[in-house]
Design brief:
The structure holds two protein chains of two kinds. Chain A is of the alpha+beta class. Chain A is about 45% helix and about 15% strand. Chain A has two domains: about 100 residues, Immunoglobulins (Immunoglobulin-like); about 190 residues, no CATH class. In chain A, a hairpin with a 2-residue loop joins strand 4 and strand 5. In chain A, helix 3 packs across helix 6. The radius of gyration of chain A is 27 Å and the shape is elongated. In chain B, about 85% of the residues lie in helices and about 0% in strands. Chain B is elongated and about 60 Å long. Classes of the chains: A alpha+beta, B mainly alpha.
Amino acid sequence: MKKNWWKFLAVLLLSYVLIATFTVPLVPGGLSISIDEIHRGKQTVEFVGYNTHFQDNASNLQCFVAIGEQYLGVEDLKITDNAHLQFSVEWPDTMPSSAIAFYVNDHVDGSVYVSSALSNKDIAIVSNSKLKTTIQPQVLTDDHQVHGFPFQPILFETIRNLMLHVPMWFTMFFLMGIAFVASIKSMRGNAASDLVAVASVKVGLLFCILGLITGSLWARFTWLTWWTKDPQLNGALVVFIVYVAYILLRNSIDDEIKRARISAVFNLFAFVLMIVLLMVMPRIADNSLHPGKSGNPAFSKYDLDSSLRAVFYPAVIGWILLGFWIYRLQLKFEKLNDQINRR
Amino acid sequence: MIKSTAVKALQVMLVMMIASPMMAQSNGLENTFFESGKIKVVMGVAVIIFAGIAIYLFRLDKKINQLEKEIHDEKN
């Protein structure tokens, strides 16, 4: 019991993480608008919110359109329900910018907006033109009454995958790190370390596969493709293949001492390759879609706010402990297997 | 014995690669994943992870039991 405290910790952390991952709500946000083209004159727009409370706040709700840094009021506001409302916009003949965002402000949800790419049919963009500003936006502080995970455009609920997909890679790094250290020991003549290395690489590969498949599924519904030319993705695939090659190489050598030595050398190179391909290259490359890579901010206040950190860090520790647990079972298998092969 | 985890892993990857374009063509089920804030994507990810770990553990358990039995039989 005392020896296995970390197993209890793993169960405890993962239980907390899973409950939090699936029960904490998203803060309110703007989901979509019904138009994709604007033209001079009046246009009716339907605004769809997510986790919003339009109906409950009908009395102090404010809608407007932000064009560049100026604001345009809306007319004929009609609230259908908590998530849907309708208004019409009287577009001017000229406007200062083509950056358009539709805002709904209320005191429960805070400021909710949709800014999507709209094609402009016939409105002239004149940078110094003044709108007949018909509205002064309410100043709302950031403290929503609804607390939860941040609402990010495109991601929506899939921001929860942060607690599932991302720790797979952390766990793989941890296990491949064990294998790296074991391989160094193995090269210095510690015979048992070879089994440690192969056991942790096998479990690391499990987490690598899970990371690849879950990442592919996530990408399909956010980046709209199963696989893309992201350096992080291709790097992960190469790392996967290199570690599979390690297992195959190790299995193909019958002589014990030779097997330990050759596979240890291969493993050292594989680990260095993994660091380069997954941690260095995506940061240097300029076409990575992953946060934290090529100038995309990760660990910034927008990507990882305190509500996510409170679940994400325990998730990383919990999954790493679970990975370590599975590795111990795999090591048991490798030792038994070795014992039988020696006879 | 030699046809181990690595080969199995390659098989899984192959199936995934072949299945992906086929899934992309059938749009009915796929489109439902965009509904209600894409929550089904999260559920899919969770199912994949737990199924993956469960299958791995069941297989490992079976293999360990087999070896233990072998060692036990040899002793007797």
